[in-house]
Each structure stands twice: as structure tokens, then as C-alpha cells.
Amino acid sequence: MTISLEQIAEFTSQLEGSVHRLARHFEPPRFVDVNGFPQFRHAHRNDLLLSFLKCIRAVSALNASVVLLRNGFVQEVGAQCRCIDEFCEDVFFLATPLGTDGSYSVEQSRLVEEFFQEEFPGNPGPLMQSQPRARVPRDKVRAGIARIQGMPINPSDANQLYRVLGRTFSGYVHGAYVHIMEMYSGPTLDRCRFFTSGMSGTPRIPQFTECLANYAYKVAAAAEIVARRCEDNEIKTELEVERVRFEETTGVGAGDAEDNLKKAKKRQ
Q1: Among 27, 97, 171, 200, who pairs with 179 as Cys (CB 3.0-4.6 Å)?
Q2: Which of 17-26, 55-64, 99-108 has the lowest mean pLDDT?
Q3: In terms of DSSP bridges, do strands 37-41 and 192-194 run parallel, antiparallel, or are they unpaired?
Q4: Residue 19: how many CA atoms within 13 Å on its side-chain side?
Q5: Partners of 38 in beta bridges
Q6: How far apart are CA 112 and CA 97, in angstroms?
Q7: Of 235, 214, 238, whose CA–CA distance to 52 is shortest?
Q8: What's the confidence (pLDDT) of residue 209?
Q9: Against a cut of 0.85, is the pTM above it?
Q10: pLDDT in tens, 231-255
């Protein structure tokens, strides 16, 4: 089934509207002084606010990806997809408490605390130093997601799949050799030719269109989690209806995830 960029753009627009309406569950941020500069900040910060803001950022990344892909910039879309991975992983990771007593685990609590930490402490100046951050390693986040009950893929395969996807798309962020060479079109008479003004008209465009459709679906799943946690059945149902329609028109997300993974293993 062929997927068009217009289908992704329309789905993203619908998703954007739903995510914006989730803001009604959070107290608006206030203009406050942060190290001598006026900034917007929330007075009440928690894990649910983190998850909502990650969805906001993910929708922005989707919109940016649509613009980039329309102009053929597939390498840059790959970098945006890597960002979306982390945004959605954080939402999935915080969806269910993983502590032994039904509360958040140490890693979950640390992720929330680190997210709201200011970058620069104290008074502003030319030699300001950023605060050290106790980041939760991505492997810990992915392992935690794999342990969540109800995941469509068994924990071992889920963890491996997250790791492979993360490493693959990290190459677009860091400029890995194999990813840069995807831009090479072959030698010309006087020089080597790289696509540095987009790759429109190449097979990369349909490849990344399908890829971006999967990431739009992933953001929708993350937004549904936030709507459920906000106990907003109206928006949750709205997101589910649009997601199912996207499945039916594009084929993205259709079928049993465990079964699809087994078929992929057999093809290796």
C-alpha cells in the first residue's frame, strides 16, 4: 500500500489539534525570573506534565519532518526521527510505575527530576557553567518499556528492537560514515557528487515517507497514553479513531506486532 506525504501531513495536523487540547489538564505556565531572564515555567511539575510536553515536542518534530521531506532532505528527517524516538520512549517509560511497591522506580523518578532541571544555576554571566545531569541511560529506559505489561512484543525482542532502531537513526544525528554515503550519487566529470540540496526524485523519498508514517503512528500512540492518564476519554477516543483510520488508509500499524516480528525474523 502506497503512503503519500499528504496523508502523513493530514494525520499530523489532526494529531496536533488533539495534543493541543490536552493542555486543558495542566495549569498554564507563568512568566518568572530564571537567572535574571524572564522565562515561562510551570509552578507544578510532574511526570504527566513531562509526558504532555514530550508529545508537544514530538508533534513539532513531525511537522518539521514533513517540510524537510517535501524538499528531499531525508538525512535531516532521519535525525528528527531519532528525536521522536526518545520523546515517545519517555512517554512509554512513564506510562506504568515499575517500582516494587507500585510506585515509580528509581530510574523513572530520576528521569522526571532531570527533565525539569534548569540548565544554568546562579547568576548569568559569560562564563556560566551548566549543571551536571544525572541522566537515565537510554538502555535503562528501553529495558523498562520492555517490562511493561501489555506490550505487544515480548521483552527480549522489544529491547533489541528499540536498541537497533536507536543506533540506526543515531547515525543521522552524528553524521556516521554509512549514513553520509547514502547521499552519494556517483562521480561526475570533474568531481564527486553528493546530494547536499535534498534527494528529491531518488528512491530515498518513498523509503523515508514510509518511515515517517511509522513515526507519526508512534507519536499518536504516545498521545493516547497521555490522554488516558489525563482521564480525558473525549480526546482519547478522538485519537483512537484517527489512528485506526490512518491504519486503514496506509497499512501502518496494522496486524499483530509479535506475528509481524516473527515473519521478519524468518526473512533474515
Answers
A1: 171
A2: 99-108
A3: unpaired
A4: 25
A5: 33
A6: 13
A7: 235
A8: 97
A9: yes
A10: 999 999 999 999 999 999 999 987 6
